[in-house]
Amino acid sequence: MKVVPVYQAEGMVLCHDVTEIIPGKRKGKAFRKGHVIRRDDIPRLLTIGKENIYVWEVNEQTLHENDAALRFAQAIAGPGLSLAEASEGKVEITASIRGLLKINGEALERINDIEQVAAATLHSNQIVDAGKKVAGCKIIPLVIGNEKLKQIEQIGIDCYPVVEVKPLQACKVGVVTTGSEVYHGRITDCFGPVLTDKFERLGSSVLRQVFVPDDISMISKAIHRLLAEGAEMIVTTGGMSVDPDDVTPSGIRAAGGQIVAYGAPTLPGAMFMLAYFGTVPVLGLPGCVMYHKSTIFDLVVPRLLAGEVLSRKDIIRLGHGGLCLVCEECRYPECGFGKGS
Ligand SMILES: Nc1nc2c(c(=O)[nH]1)N[C@H]1C(S)=C(S)[C@@H](COP(=O)(O)OP(=O)(O)OC[C@H]3O[C@@H](n4cnc5c(N)ncnc54)[C@H](O)[C@@H]3O)O[C@H]1N2
Ligand code: MOO
């Protein structure tokens, strides 16, 4: 900060608000702190009585907060995002498409470890609609050293993209509904409509729903039939728990898939299974997916539709934030469920 004669202040940044008082008419801010002084501001500043003012100097080594915030946002934003105009040292980042929000948490931490800058985001791995605000980049002082922006830009290159929205692929989904009580018509199937609705909301569709009793070989055959019909994802429903008739995990194993995990640290959704048949994910969905509004389904399926291949480690990580409070009115993803992963 330094004092300069006002007629030398063009291009420099005001360090404080400048108040103008016109008796009987108005009292208010004539210029805001952070304003970059233009040549035509000078006569007005002189009229207000400012022959000398405190300024920050912007030169090759320093940047005004708004210019810096824009470079900051450009450095962290990847595909599927758009940037708002810089204001008060801040640029907001919004989704430009509907899709899966991905945040590189490690890169974000490295950036926020740089002094005088702050980036805040929504949590990773949630579906966001186009227009949703997902992140904000803020410069703390009015003027910041260029080297700090260069550090951020290097992290942005090394970890590209720090923030992105991945589009969801439209998938043809095969459904294998197990349960002798459903197969023999003792009860009406309720899983199919829930899944049709959930997949349609995600831009995918149910190719076919096959009904089988609690029989390992029939479950296995149904999986192969749907694979042969071109299913790009298969979900089996029910029979995932511990009763003698809960044989769906055995059916998936018998079909010969590569098992990623049986059991997931999410409640509801603990009795979940994920397997792969080549590139086709096969999911074992427990009864809770039919009953509860938000479950393991909502944490895993969007990521699969965004093209991610999930590992056992990805499933294990769901534990932090994997406890759903089963609120009367479900507000997911505007809650803690799935937040830690
Ligand atoms: N002793 C234990 N009991 C339970 C455990 C456990 O670990 N130990 N796990 C619980 C969890 S977690 C879940 S989730 C549920 C359900 O798990 P399943 O996937 O095995 O579900 P099912 O036994 O097949 O069915 C439960 C219930 O839902 C009805 N159902 C199933 N499919 C359909 C369908 N397509 N349409 C309509 N209704 C359906 C079924 O008739 C049963 O009433 O287990 C807990 N228990
Ligand atoms: O899978 Mo149950 O899967 O936790 O409610």
Automatic annotation (TrEMBL):
Gene3D superfamilies: MoaB/Mog-like domain (3.40.980.10)
Signal as UniProt keyword: no
Pathways per UniProt: Cofactor biosynthesis; molybdopterin biosynthesis
Reactions catalysed according to its record: adenylyl-molybdopterin + molybdate = Mo-molybdopterin + AMP + H(+)
Domain MoaB/Mog intervals: 174-306
Top EC class of this enzyme: transferase
Keywords, alphabetical: Magnesium, Metal-binding, Molybdenum, Molybdenum cofactor biosynthesis, Transferase
SUPFAM superfamilies: Molybdenum cofactor biosynthesis proteins (SSF53218)
EC numbers, comma separated: 2.10.1.1
InterPro entries linked: MoaB/Mog-like_dom_sf, MoaB/Mog_dom, MoeA-like
Entry cofactors: Mg(2+)
Reported function: Catalyzes the insertion of molybdate into adenylated molybdopterin with the concomitant release of AMP.
Family: Belongs to the MoeA family.
Stated name of the protein: Molybdopterin molybdenumtransferase
Taxonomic lineage: Bacteria, Bacillati, Bacillota, Negativicutes, Selenomonadales
